[in-house]
Design goal:
Radius of gyration: 27 Å
Distance between the termini: 63 Å
Number of domains: 3
CATH architecture of the largest domain: Beta Barrel
Order of helices and strands: EHEEEEEEHEEEEEEEEEEEEEEEEE
Length: 359
């Protein structure tokens, strides 16, 4: 029958596809259209053995878990694909399984696993024919070998209301986007989901940018390379949150090479969590450099605070910026909207020798 087996492979429990199938085209091993002619449930073998008794016989049990589908191939866009494909995928979607249905036709994006078989996951651009018109238009254009290219992408606004809160992401709708390259400038706008796309481009390097207005910073400009897939993808973001950055140095002028635990104490916020509320934000300085991101406007105190239970992170005594032993003598750092505050040098006394630890 000329079967091509598709294995479940290393599927993920959660996933996120990019804004356009062109971004995954070059990374996908086989792409085709096929109709499901048969479905059957397969058993997944699982093994378990006691670790407490050496030489214990391994116990093997079988549990339902894999759906096998046979697809009649109608159109091939990429890869070595025969007229019939035998595909199997986990029954549970949360384990990465794709919900094939008998008699339905699909655009299938498949990857090759380490065992040489191909696998299909819902974490891909695999979709029913009825939901895949834009994908099919792109794939057929690639198959025809057209010469024009395009850039697609999405723009987001990310905010944190207080230092201990979660990041809230919202699409930047109806925002102007500029695409510059190959001697031309293209101006377009995002849709309600923050997405944008422009075509009729020549392959090459482009500069994609947004201008959300005063009071924002972030990834407002991105260099995009449009290569042999004739497609480039941009992901832009803006935030009104601030950032604190700086350098650790020894008072004698020496460099700080090791990892150093740091904390940033908000003075204007209290963690609303009723269980174990946090008093500070934590970060690890590396090779003397540190930064704290996603900071709402407010006042903060910066400190080096040793981790006594972690070997190597306990060599420096507690110290407050710009190098005071007591919190009362610390300088207060004020962060305005979308401001990046470089505090410069945070001076430390030379570290104590590492302590010997007993087992």
């Amino acid at each position: 029958m000329g079967l091509l087996a598709l294995s479940a492979g290393p599927l993920l429990a959660s996933c996120l596809t990019t804004g356009h199938p062109c971004a995954d085209y070059g990374k996908t091993d086989a792409i085709f259209v096929g109709k499901v002619t048969e479905l059957r449930l397969r058993e997944r073998a699982r093994s378990a053995a006691s670790r407490s008794e050496p030489g214990v016989e391994r116990i093997v049990t079988n549990t339902p878990g894999d759906v096998e589908a046979v697809l009649q191939v109608r159109e091939v866009f990429k890869g070595d694909v025969g007229p019939t494909v035998e595909a199997w995928t986990p029954e549970e979607t949360w384990k990465g399984g794709f919900p094939f249905r008998l008699g339905a036709a699909y655009v299938v994006f498949a990857q090759r696993a380490a065992d040489g078989l191909l696998w299909v996951s819902h974490c891909s651009w695999t979709a029913s024919i009825g939901d895949a018109s834009p994908t099919l238009a792109f794939l057929r254009g690639m198959k025809r070998g057209g010469t024009t290219a395009f850039i697609t992408g999405q723009a987001w606004r990310t905010e944190v209301a207080n230092p201990f809160g979660d990041i809230d992401s919202q699409p930047l709708a109806r925002l102007a986007v500029t695409v510059k390259g190959s001697g031309r400038i293209h101006t377009l706008r995002t849709d309600d989901e923050g997405r944008f796309e422009t075509g009729q481009l020549a392959p090459g390097s482009y500069e994609v940018s947004i201008a959300p207005g005063a009071g924002f910073r972030g990834r407002l400009l991105q260099e995009v390379e449009v290569g042999e897939t004739r497609c480039g993808v941009a992901s832009l973001s803006a935030t009104s949150n601030g950032r604190v950055t700086g350098h650790l140095r020894h008072r004698d002028g020496g460099a700080v090479a090791e990892a150093v635990p740091m904390q940033l104490f908000p003075l204007d916020y209290v963690d609303p969590s009723p269980v174990a509320p946090r008093a500070s934000l934590k970060a690890l300085a590396w090779r003397g450099e540190f930064h704290f991101d996603d900071l709402p406007p407010g006042r903060y105190v910066l400190a080096v605070v040793p981790e006594d239970e972690v070997e190597g992170l306990d060599r420096y005594a507690t110290s407050y910026y710009p190098g005071a032993p007591d919190r009362d003598a610390a300088h207060v750092i004020t962060v305005e909207r979308a401001q990046v505050v470089d505090v410069g040098d945070f001076l430390l006394e030379p570290p104590a020798p590492s302590r010997e630890r007993s087992n």
